[in-house]
Amino acid sequence: MEYDKQRSMLKVFSMMIMIMMGAQAQAQLSSDFYSESCPSLFHVVRQVVHRAVAREPRMGASLLRLFFHDCFVNGCDGSILLDDTPSFQGEKTAGPNNNSVRGYEVIDKIKLNVERLCPGVVSCADIVAISARDSVLLLGGPHWSVKLGRRDSTKANFVAANTGVIPPPTSTLSNLINRFKAQGLSTRDMVALSGAHTIGLAKCATFRNRIYNESNIDLSFATSRKKSCPATAGSGDNKEAILDVGSPKRFDHSYYSQLRDQKGLLTSDQVLFNDGPTDSLVVAYSRNLNAFYRDFARAMIRMGDISPLTGSKGQIRNNCRRPN
Ligand code: HEM
Ligand SMILES: *[C@@H]1O[C@H](CO)[C@@H](O)[C@H](O)[C@H]1NC(C)=O
Ligand SMILES: *[C@@H]1O[C@H](CO)[C@@H](O)[C@H](O)[C@H]1NC(C)=O
């Protein structure tokens, strides 16, 4: 009797442990998540990203940024891809995204091709993560093993996207550090991830104050930027300039050399090298390409780990633009 009771208690106890371990295993992302269920996934994503970037190199930058803006708002859950619905406002029109985040059509195209081969299996959130990785590689940057197994959200968070979760380009260094810290990312991660500004463009409205009002800026750089960015707010707001004047289409470390020359385009770029605690990292990355690549890849994996929906949470959307 007593023995049976002990045995059944032991059984219940070990079952509880197994359930707990199962839940933990589900909460972990892994690089081989789709190796059985969708073996051609990487090939399909790479093919579409490759074509899109061949057509327009900037698309690589846009897809990388799309991943960042997805992950910082409620985690990497594909929420940024949702269009407005009668029951919620999407994130696409939030301040940092409106008329600025690009690449939605490329994600749609990948999803379409993936659904043909493995219907209902691969999340939009994971497609965004793989696209960002492939974009960096295609533009000459580092490779990393991207972790997968995220599921898609059923709603978006306009308010979070609109109110500073994504740091503004006018950020101070401590603001940047705190915004990344709030996502579980270190100052080192933040400085390495900012190196993404080695590619892509920014609109005049995002750097006007910097080129007209700041003193920690190279004079000839400011002068040349002013030519296509008028001082008056509202005029020429959408005129674009390259973020890294060193090598705008190559994913390298010239961004950090530009910062040392006071040629950071955004205030949030130049604060990384402005007689502060991150100066030494900027110098290190400007000198050592491999150190930058190593830390960037590491930080991308860490950013990809922000609050994923796993297990039975969320869903695998059929269409990345709307919940099922
Ligand atoms: C550290 C804080 C950051 C701030 C304040 C910031 C801000 C900005 C701003 C204002 C733009 C220009 C948008 C426009 O004018 O349309 C931009 C572009 C871009 N950002 Fe960031 N960003 C930050 C971090 C990141 C991170 C972590 C990544 C990715 C890992 C990233 C990737 C990019 C890319 C690739 C572009 C160019 C996009 C394109 O050309 O379509 N940024 N960023
Ligand atoms: C987004 O941009 C459009 C076009 O510039 C503008 O009409 C709209 O009001 C903006 N949306 C939000 C929510 O600010
Ligand atoms: C420069 O700073 C002043 C004072 O803060 C502000 O009124 C003005 O709009 C700024 N100019 C630009 C071009 O941002």
From TrEMBL:
Active site (UniProt): 69
Sequence positions that bind heme b: 197
Keyword Secreted: yes
Positions of Ca(2+) 2 binding: 198, 244, 252
Entry keyword Metal-binding: yes
Cofactor (UniProt): Ca(2+); heme b
Protein name according to UniProt: Peroxidase
Organism listed in the record: Cardamine amara subsp. amara
